[in-house]
Amino acid sequence: MKLTQLAAAVATTATLTLGAVQAQAADVTLRFGHIWPAVAGTHKNIFQPWADQVQKESDGRIEVEIYPSGTLAKPAAQYDSVKNRIMDVTATVQGYSANRFPLTQVVELPGVVKTAVQGSCVLQSLYDEGLIASEYEDTHPLFFFTHGQGHLHSTDKLVKVPADLEGMRIRRPTTVVGDMLSRLGAQPVGMPAPETYQSAQRGVINGIMFPWEGQLSFRLNELTPYHTEVGGLYSLSFIATMNKDVYNGLPDDLKQVIDHASGQAWAKIAGVNYDNSDDTGRQQALDAGDEIYTVEGGAENPAWKPVLDEATESYLASLEEKGLPGRQVYARALELSNSCPTE
């Protein structure tokens, strides 16, 4: 064998050996599925950094494989897929599982969330204080977060007052938001975020409830040139959570790695990303020459407030009828709303 051939053989053997060592390096591989596109800031600025931190702080003993765009499970099945260990970790919208997280969804009510940083602090605090913890006993929550204020985006007309909503087919993210839209005179159409673009393109809906971040992540600014900002109208809750058996099966030092990638610190990271993406999404609409109408006083505006108050009272009453401490959780959410930082 010539020297060059020998060197090539040695190099090839070394490469294969290194590859085998690297392949065997991880003690645990976590399959992390979520609904956002891989190009979205949510994926790039929250979930990928989370995976990077876990891998780095575990010295490579934990490997995280991320599957965006609902690759492993449909949006409504994300939470159960982690519960049943079809995947190990997910980030998802609680409201996609109707009536499953009713206390959590008080943060969706008008006037609770001002910014994503503040809303994420509110939601994480409600969990940390035990007020909503009973809703998550079947998984191991990592961190909670919200998007910023949600707004109305329309394909064919500008909405200024509730009467303008009459008969409009509007995508609603959850039943809580859907009830609010119904009371305002609209026809809510339930669908997860990834289905919204095609539905708007085909005329199935002519209005969308989204934060500016959602407009950006799911390219909805391309289809909706009219935007109405009713400050404090609603916000959605999200969770990043892990299969309980997978977490409990980790050795103590790797549990500490996961614990360090949990709680308020990561709630804030998620909130900062959403607030930044809101700014970018709104600027994108402005640059395109879209019309943006901002309701004076937001949810406190006299034309909007009576209906929004009615929707809030109806939701809280329904929780109390089920024996749930809805008013207690809502009152604490409002207290936290005033004390949590907005940026």
UniProtKB/TrEMBL annotation:
Entries under CDD domains matching the protein: PBP2_TRAP_Dctp3_4 (cd13665)
InterPro entries xref list: DctP_fam, TRAP_DctP_sf
Signal in keyword set: yes
Annotated signal peptide: 1-25
Keyword line: Signal
A biological-process GO annotation: transmembrane transport
Keyword Signal: yes
The protein, known as: TRAP-type C4-dicarboxylate transport system, substrate-binding protein
Source organism: Marinobacterium lutimaris
